[in-house]
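pinned: reference chain
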Amino acid sequence: MKTRVEMLKEMGVSSTDAEQYIDDLELTLPKYGIANSKVRLAHFFSQVLHESGCMRYDMENLNYSAKALRAVFGKYFKTKRQAEGYARQPEKIANKVYANRMGNGAESSGDGWRYRGRGLIQLTGKNNYRTFAKWIGDDRIIDDPDLVASEYAVHSAVFYWDKNNLNRIADKDDVVRMTKRINGGTNGLAHRTELLTKAKGLLAMLDLKPARRTA
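pinned: its structure tokens
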């Protein structure tokens, strides 16, 4: 446990955040085969740290300017005027861009905001929340989605990893394919690759012994 906290701190995670999540990491990573090899651990930590801002964020930040809305969600904001009508209104933005997909209702339903991204790998959309609730065995999540951030930030990331069989991609040491599976594209690839290289070096240096189980 100590060496993994040290590794996270070396990769830019604060002491507080490292200590906050270490118990759940120690519980879940061996259980789902992520701790079976150092290359799996390196890919897991590099992707999770990129997605969560080095574990600072467990909930999606949708406080976009009009310019950012057109850059990130151009499909939904085709004109500057339209984007300005939503700028700096996170709830309104979420309800628009996540409406009528991923199991969410219409924009007026509020599902986009209710089931916005949470956890260390952003769990998004009512269908994914429902599937995760079944996976973790906690039906409260549908009515209280904030639990994904407050209690299950690590578990939801491991759920996504397990559901998408990402251990197999990690075993091939393919950071581009891994990034596409998590991000849908190659956004942040340079930073993810940098974190991966650092994680590999730290795992070797810290002599963190992986679990012997196979998956």
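why pinned: DSSP finds 14 helices and no strands in the chain. Residues 2-56+154-206 form one domain.
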